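Need residues for this backbone.
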């Protein structure tokens, strides 16, 4: 079965609501145009100007702040070509929901044959990505986190740096969402809440190698990367390399941050001559934290506040701030389909899944090991 034929696992309410608000705004504008026809002329002129701008600037790189992340002209030719191919391939496997949950739900049910396979969730925060992966796969998932936040600064794009320590469970947002979703700590890690999950506390620089050394022959079936930074991602890929097999599924939550996880995978696959194919491009799993808030009213508040923040001061504000260079690069450079996606959804489509189809140099080291 191909990814496009698979029934949808979920689509967060956040996106449905955001889309509904967007459609509402379009209807209000249409009604306003009916009563004040001159508005129609103004909108028409703006659209024609934008179209002309897009034709003039056809050679620009395709850019969506926080999505395609930065001006790729700053990279060397080979990496730029990789990004170009990636974006072209990903457009063929766009899905409306979360690649992580899709992939987990498509794994074979637990059996004697796959009992040694590993499902790893790297970067778990309050633990929902791990629990939901366990729910979807019906298998045990191992979640790794410091629970004290990022271990390095994360340069998201030219404008944004997320400081090390961000995403610590002591932060107010984590505390609020833990309370809202019924998560408490047990021995310093989030409770499993009835799911088949095991959390490993500490930096992956210290925890991942001993964890794998204790399971020397275990193949990695599912590898979910949500450590965010280039350094942690590359280190995790290198540490896991002897455990990857043909058919391993790798899901990167922030793949389109081109100087982060994508760059790490690019270097990793090049170093060992790996072969792979992209499988899905969809929503970040993080947003499912809000879906897990038990109170309906609190959940609604999260949705509305999240959408308002996103379009006013958050990642979406560049769409109306005409003095911001990103405004022009977005409206003139981004593919129409992606502009429509951004306007119809508060969240981000950065998560990508791929399957290793050839191990290159790693096959040789597997054999000699
Ligand atoms: C974006 S959050 C993960 C969100 C989670 N997957 C979810 O969907 O809710 C990133 C997490 O990675 C953790 N992290 C980043 N680098 C790490 C490292 N090298 N070792 C362990 N944890 C790390 C941070 O503590 C943080 O909780």
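Answer:
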């Amino acid at each position: 079965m191909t990814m496009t034929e698979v029934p949808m696992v979920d689509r967060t309410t956040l996106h449905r609501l955001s889309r509904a608000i967007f459609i509402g705004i379009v209807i209000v504008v249409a009604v306003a145009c009916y009563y004040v026809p001159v508005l129609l002329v103004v909108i028409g002129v703006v659209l024609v100007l934008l179209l002309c701008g897009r034709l003039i600037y056809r050679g620009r790189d395709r850019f969506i702040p926080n999505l395609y992340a930065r001006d790729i002209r700053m990279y060397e030719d080979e990496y730029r070509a990789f990004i170009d191919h990636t974006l072209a391939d990903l457009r063929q496997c766009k899905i409306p929901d979360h690649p992580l949950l899709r992939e987990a739900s498509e794994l074979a049910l637990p059996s004697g044959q796959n009992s040694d396979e590993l499902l790893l969730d790297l970067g778990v925060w309050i633990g929902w990505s791990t629990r939901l992966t366990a729910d979807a796969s019906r298998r045990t998932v191992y979640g790794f986190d410091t629970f004290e936040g990022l271990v390095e600064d994360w340069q998201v794009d030219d404008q944004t740096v997320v400081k090390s320590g961000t995403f610590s469970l002591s932060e107010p947002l984590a505390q609020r969402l833990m309370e809202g979703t019924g998560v408490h700590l047990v021995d310093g890690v989030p409770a499993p809440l009835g799911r088949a999950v095991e959390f490993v506390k500490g930096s992956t620089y210290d925890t991942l190698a001993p964890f794998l050394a204790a399971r020397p022959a275990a193949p990695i079936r599912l590898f979910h990367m949500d450590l965010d930074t280039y350094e942690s991602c590359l280190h995790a890929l290198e540490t896991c390399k002897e455990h990857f097999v043909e058919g391993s599924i790798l899901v990167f939550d922030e793949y389109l941050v081109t100087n982060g996880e994508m760059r790490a995978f690019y270097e990793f696959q090049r170093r060992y001559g790996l072969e792979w194919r992209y499988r899905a491009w969809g929503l970040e799993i993080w947003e499912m934290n809000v879906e897990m808030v038990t109170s309906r009213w609190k959940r609604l508040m999260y949705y509305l506040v999240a959408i308002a923040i996103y379009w006013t001061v958050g990642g979406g504000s560049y769409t109306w701030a005409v003095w911001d260079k990103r405004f022009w690069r977005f409206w003139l450079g981004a593919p129409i389909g992606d502009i429509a996606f951004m306007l119809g959804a508060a969240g981000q489509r950065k998560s990508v899944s791929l399957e290793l189809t050839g191990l290159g140099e790693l096959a040789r080291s597997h054999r000699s090991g």
